[in-house]
Design brief:
The structure holds two protein chains of two kinds. In chain A, about 35% of the residues lie in helices and about 10% in strands. By secondary structure, chain A is α+β, with helices and mostly antiparallel strands. Helix content of chain B is about 10%, strand content about 40%. Chain A: It is found in: Cell outer membrane.
Chain lengths: ~675, ~270
């Protein structure tokens, strides 16, 4: 027996060292399997696409590209569109997972295809071969532009780097920001040239997809080149190790660069417009019918066949799902969480259909500001919104509006005092934001005239009204001690599944996400046109620049049910702001605005007057580097049985955002800087 | 059975031998201290600041470690203009401070050094370092602040601590010079319950600011400026106030952070 053990031991030691297994493994798939036929290419492309830094339901600005739909919410990253109770609702100053090493993996996939597909050129018809090559350039352009938006100049890895190799060959320093954007431009141009005009298969890119993302990227590049100059200290600098201008543009090159990029953005957008392949979604749109216009804009996000969709990320239950409805639906649909996306009053104020004070803010009292006069009374909360722009109603659920066949009751509290009612606070300023309804004497006195609820269910305070028991807060809140109720008095409607029979849950949602739509192309054309005109440039294609911009804005406004422009857009800052504001409205809650306010350089204190696309006094919502947003809170008054609204800074889970100039370029991950002799940290950090 | 146990023990002893399981990790803990102060070269007074990323930043680079060292995590001066770090490894360091004063490290646009007043020192035991700098502004109280109805009214005098010509002489070669750099842009009155009052510890309800556009402040240098707190401070409380002012110049260049020069904090009783 002893011998057997010894023998076994000896054999096991020997067997590990003596066999030379120099046989090609049959279970590893190689180029001959993948790059020689369509189904193999599909596998290759699927891998690249599943790693693309798309910002959809599985993207959270605070976390970065993690492909994770947990806590899914839109517009909460300090854009002012919406608020969320959690720590994920902070300004876009960095990402938990920096988009760096993941980008390198994807770049390698793209570069590998660019280098190795030509070896198998014969395997495909020419147009198919070109298309596949174009896909690789599209991926590379997309990745470089995603990195450039975050970091400025990045290492331009345009070849497969084999390891091990000389350190020389392995180390790629950051290029200048200008070179990086030029690479993005060159790769998009290659992609546009090679890709087929229509996607050969659902989900593949095509020529127009590449053009659309090109115009988006070039608009970013042009804006950065131009608006870095408006930032105190001229946002630019040289890398310490390489002396390369890793962020910003040189004093003598920014102007020409910005014009060049704006021209590219304009041309790319115009090419899509002129192709007439896409159009604004108007399937249910009827002129002068607000209800139809509203329903039309709700449907456009759930209609997979919308002619407006240029590029879409599809989901399919149960194999590829997300959980947006599980986190961002109204509180009564809680499954398992709710109220992740609560739009702000400041956002609502972008839209038409409300009475205003002389300073442009929404009117809730009879006076000239919300500290003066008495509250205006409404029979139902929805009366306040009866003239609201149909587009706003499609994006936002108002208090008392319907969603999934149910009334969405949102009520901050019940007022039992005498009418007319004076404003609840005498100070509504930023500084007073931390004084809340529950601190008011009307609530704390005994007997009290203001009823509020700390939480839902049995924690609700109850008022007897006309013999019936009425809860102080609405079924969806807001509850002053529970951030899971409504935070601002409003809910996001965009992207939520409107089907009453749909039961939300984690990983149960499968509505698609529109990554690129025709409306953005129109807005890109308009903005680039105005910027070119502002720079005194002639039209690149002979079309009247102002006419292009005006037409684009009017088309979007008409579909949205908003009033049309009274005249042509003018080539000045006012004209530019008309375009910017339209963009802020149309593309809200789509992961787009955070990039817009970033490239306009309007997030830091000195530039914050332009935060909303239009001019708004920054001191009304900020204190130096910090800023806050407001909610619109409906109250029920028992004397007349009517509703009134109070406009104040976020009452529940107050978020204070902070943004500094250094945040316009994210820090390079520290590990990448310390392990490499050539990767520079941002010079201003 | 006994044999098997023996074999298992024998084999597992190989595993244990290969790792330094019982070796002592005897690298010395970082225990050296760096103490420093930032003083105005003209007067010898310390440059007052705020402890936060808007205050005077201290950056250490351990040059004795080797090539390609990444700076140690930045830290910030205390409000009185001194700093101390008691957990440093022994070695040679480059010490740089950035604040509301003429930059110590000045380079032109292509990164060619013009002047380098940062310090390279060996840190061992308690090492002291003194930076003599030229602050942009000097901020002083003119008289005791007055309090009425929960509002504090203070008088502040702001003067230039570095002359306009000297500022220009040192900053212009760095490139991209604009005469607007020297404009005084704002005076802040920070109010807080905390004695470490400053930008970071301010109470947003009561702190206030006066902004000046362009060069409009130029005629007001040396004058007493009256600034009043916001809102109503509850009576019976003691608060601390500080005034601060800054020019339109960010340090380090490109960061966009325009740092304030501060006054002494004072304690105010709100009756």
């Amino acid at each position: 027996m002893k011998k057997v053990y010894r023998l076994a031991l000896v054999i096991s030691v020997l067997s590990t060292s003596c066999v030379d297994l120099d046989i090609p493994p049959t279970n590893i798939i190689g180029d001959e399997d993948l790059l020689t036929n369509e189904s193999g290419m599909e596998v290759y492309l699927a891998r690249m696409y599943s790693h693309m830094p798309f910002e959809d339901f599985k993207y959270m600005a605070q976390w970065g590209v993690e492909f994770n739909s947990w806590l899914g919410a839109m517009g909460i990253e300090g854009t002012g569109e919406a608020l969320n109770r959690d720590g994920i609702s902070t300004a876009f100053t960095g990402e938990r997972t920096p988009y760096w090493s993941m980008a390198m993996t994807l770049l390698r996939d793209a570069n590998y295809l660019i280098e190795n597909l030509p070896l198998h050129e014969d395997a495909f018809p020419e147009s198919r071969y070109n298309h596949y090559l174009g896909e690789a350039y599209f991926v590379r352009a997309f990745v470089f532009s995603a990195m450039a938006r975050r970091f400025g100049g990045v290492p331009l890895v345009t070849r497969v780097i084999n390891y091990p190799a000389d350190p020389e060959a392995l180390e790629v320093p950051r290029a200048s920001e200008e070179e990086t954007w030029n690479q993005v431009l060159a790769d998009f141009d290659q992609a546009v040239e090679l890709l087929l005009p229509t996607s050969p298969k659902r989900g593949y890119a095509n020529r127009y997809v590449a053009l659309a993302f090109k115009s988006e990227a070039m608009l970013y590049a042009g804006s950065v080149a131009k608006y870095n100059e408006t930032v105190p200290g001229r946002l630019t600098g040289l890398g310490e190790k390489t002396g390369v201008r890793v962020i910003g543009f040189a004093e003598n090159s920014w102007r020409a660069a910005s014009i060049k990029y704006f021209r590219e953005a304009y041309n790319a957008a115009q090419e899509i417009i002129k192709s007439r392949n896409y159009s604004l979604y108007k399937k249910r749109w009827v002129a002068n019918d607000r209800e139809a216009q509203y329903q039309n804009m709700v449907d456009m996000f759930s209609d997979l066949e919308s002619p407006e969709n240029i590029y879409v990320k599809e989901y399919s239950f149960p194999v590829a799902t997300h959980g947006y409805d599980a986190y961002s639906a109204p509180f009564i649909f809680k499954a398992p969480l709710a109220s992740g996306t609560c739009p702000t009053l400041d956002f609502l104020e972008l839209f038409e259909g409300f009475d205003r004070y002389p300073d442009g803010t929404i009117k809730v009292t009879t006076g000239n500001s919300n500290t003066q006069g008495q509250y205006l009374l409404y029979d139902t909360p929805l009366d306040f919104f009866k003239d609201a722009e149909p587009r706003l109603r499609a994006y936002v659920i108002f208090p008392g509006d319907r969603f999934k066949g149910t009334d969405i009751e949102i009520r901050a509290g019940v007022y039992t005092g005498a009418e007319p009612i004076q404003p609840l606070f005498n100070d509504y300023s930023y500084q007073a934001a931390e004084t809340r309804y529950q601190h008011l004497n009307a609530y704390r006195a005994n007997p009290k005239t203001l009823y509020l609820s700390p939480r839902e269910g049995s924690s609700q305070e109850v008022v007897t009204y006309n013999g019936t028991q009425m809860t102080a807060a609405g079924a969806n809140g807001p509850f002053f001690d529970n951030g899971e109720g409504c935070l601002t008095g409003l809910y996001g409607r965009k992207w939520l599944n409107p089907d009453p029979s749909f039961e939300a849950g984690e990983g149960r949602s499968d509505q698609h996400f529109v990554l690129m739509r025709y409306a953005e192309v129109l807005l890109n054309a308009a903005e680039a046109a105005v910027e070119l005109a502002l720079a005194g440039e002639p039209s690149p294609d002979g079309a009247d620049l102002m006419q292009v911009a005006t037409q684009a804005i009017n088309d979007i406004r008409e579909r949205a049910g908003a009033s049309l422009l009274s005249g042509a857009i003018t080539p000045d800052e006012n004209g530019r702001n008309i375009v910017r504001k339209e963009r802020r409205k149309e593309l809200a809650l789509e992961h787009k605005s955070k990039w817009d306010i970033r490239r306009w350089r309007v997030q830091h204190y000195e530039g914050r007057d332009g935060f909303w696309g239009e001019y708004r006094n920054k001191d009304a919502f900020s204190n130096n580097t910090r800023y806050r947003f407001r909610g619109l809170y409906p109250f029920f008054s028992t004397e007349s049985g009517k509703y009134f609204f109070d406009a104040r800074f976020q009452w529940v889970s107050l978020k204070t955002f902070e943004y500094n100039i250094v945040d316009y370029y994210f820090a390079i991950p520290g590990g990448e800087v310390s392990k490499s002799p050539v990767i520079d940290q941002q010079p201003n950090r | 059975m006994k044999q098997l146990t023996f074999f298992i023990l024998l084999i597992s002893s190989f595993f244990l031998a290969s790792c330094s399981l019982f070796e002592l990790d005897n690298y010395d803990a970082p225990a050296e201290t760096l103490w420093g102060e930032v003083v105005d070269v003209a007067t010898g007074e310390r440059v007052l600041t705020d402890q936060g990323s808007e205050g005077i930043r201290v950056r250490l680079i351990e040059t004795s470690w080797g090539d390609n060292v990444v700076p140690n995590p930045d830290f910030f001066c205390m409000p009185d203009g001194t700093f101390q770090h008691t957990k440093l490894f022994k070695g040679r360091y480059n010490v740089q401070v950035d604040g509301p004063f003429i930059p110590l490290l000045r380079e032109d646009e292509r990164g060619v050094p013009l002047a380098d007043e940062t310090k390279d020192i060996d840190i061992e035991g308690v090492t002291k370092v003194r930076f003599e700098v030229q602050p942009f502004l000097k901020v002083e109280w003119v008289e005791e602040p007055r309090v009425s109805n929960g509002k504090i009214q203070a008088k502040v005098r702001v003067t230039r601590a570095v002359s306009e010509s000297e500022f220009r002489e040192k900053i212009e070669p760095m490139g991209g010079y604009s005469s607007s750099f020297q404009n005084m842009t704002d005076i802040q009155l920070f109010v807080s319950y905390s004695a470490t009052v400053g930008y970071r510890a301010r109470d947003e309800r009561w702190s206030s600011a006066i902004e000046y556009s362009g060069s409009s402040f130029n005629s007001l240098f040396g004058e007493a400026i009256t600034i009043e707190s916001n809102g109503t401070i509850p009576s019976g409380r003691i608060v601390f106030i500080r005034a601060a002012a800054r020019i339109n110049y960010d340090t380090p260049r490109g960061s966009g952070t325009r740092r304030w020069n501060y006054s002494e904090p004072i304690e105010v009783m709100v009756p």
